[in-house]
Design goal:
This protein is of the alpha+beta class and 548 residues long. It has a five-stranded mixed beta sheet with strand order 7-8-9-1-10, with helices on one face. A five-stranded mixed beta sheet has the order 15-14-16-12-17. Helix 12 runs antiparallel to helix 14, helix 13 runs antiparallel to helix 15 and helix 18 packs antiparallel against helix 19.
Amino acid sequence: MRPGGTLTLVGAGDADNLDPALSVHTATRGVLRAYTRQLVTYRAGRDQRAAGEVVADMATELPTRSNGRLDATGQEYVFTIRPGVRWDDHRPVTAADLARGIKRLAHPDAPSPSLTYFARTIRGLARLRDELAALDPTEVSTAIECRALDGIEVMGTDTLVLRTLGHSVDFLNILALPAASPAPIEYSGFLPGSDDIIRRLRSTGPYAVREYVPGKQLVLGRNPAWDPATDPVRAAHLDEVSVRMGVDEAEAFRLVDTGEVDMLWDIQPMTAELPRLFGDPRLEVHPAGLLSPYLAVNMVSPNEDRATSKVEVRRAVSVALDREAVSRVWGGPRLSELAWRVLPPLCSAHTPVAPVPPGSPTGDPDAARALLAEAGYPDGLTLRLLHRDRDIHPESVHEIGIALARAGIRVEPVPVSITDLFATYFASPEPAVRGDWDLAFTGWEPDWHGDNARTYLQPLFESRPEGSWNLGFYASPRVDRLLAEGRDALDRDTANAAYRAVEAEVLRDMAVVPVLFAHQYWFHSPRVRGWEPYPVLNGDLTNVWLEP
């Protein structure tokens, strides 16, 4: 192993947001691993059983009853920051920084996509969210800084006490999310994710953002204040990480294929290139529990007399879908499995017996037409299908359009950049309410492995979404009640029983249309070594090294 050098990645899009409170894009989260730290985290590796095991990061140790840092009720956690953990300007990271990082997730003008996890778990955070929403905008920053919460207590400079609403079996997993990163005092007064924050980005990891030109370039350099003795999971072999953005996909692939750059970043090899890469060590495949792709269904669209609000129409889309054709675009059975359900095989709540019977792999247009007629559309209808304009997404949507047309569902593609997809179409309800889209071709990756049914179901299906990923505004009181039962369960078996009931309910409602369970795969040059999957966050840049 030879330390040093610059790892160069190349991709088509941009980072969705470099503020860890706002980032949801997989490629961006892989970069966040390099310059953010949390109280707890995961080790990179290929062992699926170990992938979901939480380990201490900035904290000296995990709270347990045996070490006295978890109380008898299982609802009070005490964390102490390791000595020597510092910001990149050499100031110590404090408990107040950690508290600020969690409270700012509830900012009413830029709520975190992860807020639903934290607000449903930490005492007082949901109330803070509601109080902030009622304040004059000029008062929000002061309230975030000064309001006391029963669930967040700062003790001195290095100790933080967190209290949960109940016995949350996955609280440590939530605290391992990038959204739980500390926030320095200079973030106070600025909107999360804004240009003001990006200009003030501070680092706690081995790297820091040295240059960022939106849509063109992102450069990470070494953080001089990072002490490897304080970091049990990041090795930081590289001197620098450079991400080239806005590159045509074919050109990006050529650059990696010829060894001119090191690795694809936010795109994958096009379908035509995959057959010759199978068995090539430059293509690394990692079986993963991804609900990706799926079709989000806009329940509030006014189009076609509110067609997508009718369950028969939603079922017709699923019945008509040619999943095998989409799978071929995504690399075939080596890289994906056909999906008619939400919880994939790697989720501990997955059961061999599907909640709903699988349909025809190539679609059943006659059955779909019958469902449309039942819904009042005997002559078919037109639906607007939102999708990314790069990578394998346009080709996938083309195949979907062919299949749905056989059933009388005409597809009007709405191609947009990945930046617009997140920042415009998914960031607010207005595009959905206007009917700018009826279906969205997208994907969901769980926020942790193993015992993670909550990470598929709560963000996608809970009513009254608070910075969640309930893109179609699905609402079901029964689903909300079952999700609460899962969150409040005292043991994993009880939680999983509730989550299986949620899955069955949302599939009966066809709240989304599952398409595939895709595997993760990466394409890189031969000189990239030590690339290890970091749970669903696009691999761990901090343990890579380069051969000459």
